[in-house]
Amino acid sequence: MMRLRRGGEGADVGSATMSSTPETGPNRMAHAHRRFFIVLCLASAIGFVLLNRLGNYLLEPSTKVEIHKNAYKTEYLRPYLEAEEWILYSLDPYPWRRNEGEDLFNKPPPLPGSEEAQKTKSNTEPPGEPKRKVPPDQEFHNFPILGKLVMQENEKLRYVIQALDTAGQNWMGAVAGCFSPRHGIRVMREGTIHDLVICYQCSSAVLYVNGKHVGGIYFATTLELDPSPDVLDGILRKAGIKRTPVH
């Protein structure tokens, strides 16, 4: 066993001897774990930085890919905001007549080959052309008119148009496979007829100028910006105009 001396050369030799002592098994494992932990932290930090930069790149407006585009311009709605008189329509979203006596769920169909099936087959007339509920002059862009109200432009009507435009500008890309409008608006501006057919149920509206289709508004958006039919329904209800319930 080496004896250590204070000061001078002995102290240096003792220090050198202690530092050159080989690591034991537990110490070696502790150092290995420490090195692994440091490498893991560095790799995680580098990965976080790379993912953050990649995310910023993907969200950069210049790199976005537009899958859908709303088919209208805000200027199409300006005549409604500037008009002094509006016509508000309550519409029936179902323009075709239905056979009220035909209820497919009233009773089960007869068994194939049975006498009742043969009788039903022989008494069945070939289907004819579907019939519309009302003549064209009682429709608003192919939808029956349940009632209408002529009114002066006011803040409530402005709010309706602005809400549609805001939702359209923040459209999230969803498109419903239906169009069952219950509201219509017509304004006259500088000799031009501007019509708007709105389906709140399907989150879409159609714009017409002098009877010609010029665009559509898709307005499926967030709950905070989602337009509501309550304003127009309230006006129609107060005026005693019939409305079609939403099923």
3D architecture notes:
The chain has six helices and seven strands; from the N terminus they run αααβαββαββββα. The longest helix is centred in the first third of the chain and has 35 residues, at 25-59. The chain is flat. The protein starts with 7 loop residues before the first helix and ends in a 9-residue tail after the last helix. By secondary structure, it is an alpha+beta fold.
Can you give me a brief rundown of this structure?
The chain contains six helices and seven strands. With 247 residues, the protein is α+β, with helices and mostly antiparallel strands.
Beta content: 15-25%
Question: What characteristic shape results from the CA principal axes?
Answer: flat
| Helix-strand category | alpha+beta
**SSE succession:** HHHEHEEHEEEEH
Radius of gyration over C-alpha positions, nearest whole angstrom: 37 Å
Ranges where pLDDT stays below 50 over 5 or more residues in a row are: 4-21, 54-68, 101-105
What is the residue-averaged pLDDT?
Answer: 76
Number of strands: 7
Main beta sheet strand tally, sense and closure: 7 strands, antiparallel
Distance between the terminal alpha carbons, to the nearest Å?
Answer: 97 Å
Task: Enumerate the strands of the largest sheet in spatial order, edge to edge or round the barrel.
Answer: 2-3-1-4-5-6-7
Helix content: 25-40%
The DSSP helix count reads 6
